[in-house]
Amino acid sequence: MKPLFKVLAASVATLSITAAPLANLPYSSQAQAAQAQTVSTQQQAQLIGKDRFQFTRNSNIFYVNGVASTSDENVAVVKGATYVQLKSIATAYGFKLSYNSATKESVAAYGNLKISFKQNESTMKVNGKSVKTGGKVFSQNGNLMVPLRAWADATGSTLQANGIHLSLSWNTQPKAVFTVNEKQIIAGETTVTTKDQASSSLGFKIVEEKWEGLEKVYSEPGQYTISRSVKDSRGIWSEPYQVTITVEKPNTPPVAEFTTEKSTYKIGEPVYYTNKSHDDGKIVRNTWTGNEPAFFKAGTYTIKLEVQDDRGATSQVEKQITVTDEVMYTKEQFYLNFASQGDKIPIDSSFSLSVPTVTYGIESEDMTAVRTNSPEQLQGPAIDYSDSIAGAVRFNIHKQNISDKPLELHLVATNEGDTATTVSKNRFSFAGPATYVSQSGKTAASRFLEELLAPLEPESITLQPGESVELITGVPAISAGKTLTIFGEYYSPSPIRYTLVVTEKNGDGIASLDTLTQSEHDGKHIRGTFSGGNREIIVDKLLGETGAEKLVLGDKTQVYDKLLTGVDAVTGEEIINYGNGGTVYNMTFNIAPHTAVLLNPRGGHYGGAFIVNEKIVQITNNSILKGQEEAAFLYRSGNFQESISISYVVAPGSNMPLHLLFVPVPSLNAEEDNAAATNEAEQQEQAEQTANQEQAVGQEQTQQ
């Protein structure tokens, strides 16, 4: 039997792909066979992992990495397809050949790759999967011939042709991939570790590795390149894989520093704090304690500032200021004259109750409001709410995930009619997922008001009869314990069924319509569809002209404001929209000169936003209103009567009702104001003394 592979004695010593290109070599099979010497299978299988195989049509001589060998059969062209002997190319690639008598398949196996061919078939199996070969497998002189292209595709080789010359490039080197675990590396401090991501495309085991530039701890700051090479069980090495890291110098803590204009102040005198803290990186948090804008009792006060940099280091500083008993401004003078929009100011909780209440008219607009706040706490996938609505609709969705898995919200619009229709996405905003319920509601309300100020740019979708589409996009899943708030406005000229669906993360809202069940009402929060979702508040008087007065908004008693009534479309039950959540209020007022407009919560905490003269005002700038003893400063008129516009939507997660106060701003210049304030304080002190005396007398009488 003649040997499978032969190597030309002259070629082995002198052949170079670059020095002696394939096209320039002699191709007389007989002449080269006469010079050839037999090489062992072990020699022929010496692959380097980045291998090149060269063939010539109508020749049985081919080259493996520049070493010439022969095959039992010439490379043949049949019906436009190039064929090679399976045994020769498989062995050259290092595959082991076997024959399955049961399936009558010739099987070539190498690592985790198995390729099976069957005579007279136009398909092959690659790891059990049937793949077309591009030509029928046939036998020639007892040798199985397979399409060269099929072999290239099965092995992941790159096939190139240049006239009658063909070459296959096959890269099976292992990959030495790794990552550095530490995102931030500090010189002399951080222990550097790596994550192994090395692999072999053919499944061979990684048995050895070499590192360059890797240190456990880098002593000096700078950039370093780490290089890694790996060897697999065949003995083939990878190319070096490199990662460049930046080693930072050790962190210097920030320096906390602030100044005031002076160290001694009068009662009610404005105190201005200048933060002069600095850091070699970035300061990410400033925490003040005691930095009141003014002080209203004589004494010594300590002001503290703590700063934190972007690497977690902190620094503190504290200073003291002295407040004398001389009065510059009363508390009322100071806050009503110096507060800025969105500032939180202290207020007597009974003040709002002591001023007259202004009655007003209400005009409603044709806007449907859907409030889906029940159940507020999501326990798992369910149909949350569904209703068929035509025209303009606003959804107010506020949900907290109390399950142990991330949950997603899907608002599905379905055309249940017999003709095509459209649904327009007019406005959309969301906030969260957030840890705090009030923060989610505040931010979502603020973002929705920004949408109201922006030009309307509807996004229209056409729905064929029976077709559904998801309207909520780009909203993350709600992780466990977090809250998500959504405002969305839509329009359709004909009825559309809107369905709010809750699924697990990456769920299909439309597919879930037929599989999920309706959630139960939690018995506490609001779920329903309401008409009149936009309202205009009408006041026919000059506010603040005769003294302080107020408007009551969202009161449960409905003495002043009127609550929306609607229907829970799930149960058919009539529902009252307590607090009027999801309703947009618009109002225009005429206010007297030197009038301050304040917002005072009466039902608990409130955090949201208002539009005042086309400007967003946060409630409040750095926090929320925590109760009746706090107010948000909205506006201050100047020396003339003014007309102001105010709009808002109730912030989910906050409490109603609200009192909108109109308070005259006291003068800063009139001495009589200070005298009156002093006299008022003396009278109040005298009244307290009298009350204490009367209480004492009453206690004595009770004891007797």
TrEMBL record:
Residue segments, region Disordered: 671-704
Highest taxon, organism lineage: Bacteria
Signal peptide extent: 1-33
Low complexity bias locations: 675-704
Entry keyword set: Signal
Entry keyword Signal: yes
InterPro entries (UniProt xref): Cu_amine_oxidase-like_N (IPR012854), Ig-like_fold (IPR013783), Mao_N_sf (IPR036582), PKD_dom_sf (IPR035986)
Domain Copper amine oxidase-like N-terminal: 63-163
Pfam families (UniProt xref): Cu_amine_oxidN1 (PF07833)
The protein, known as: Copper amine oxidase-like protein
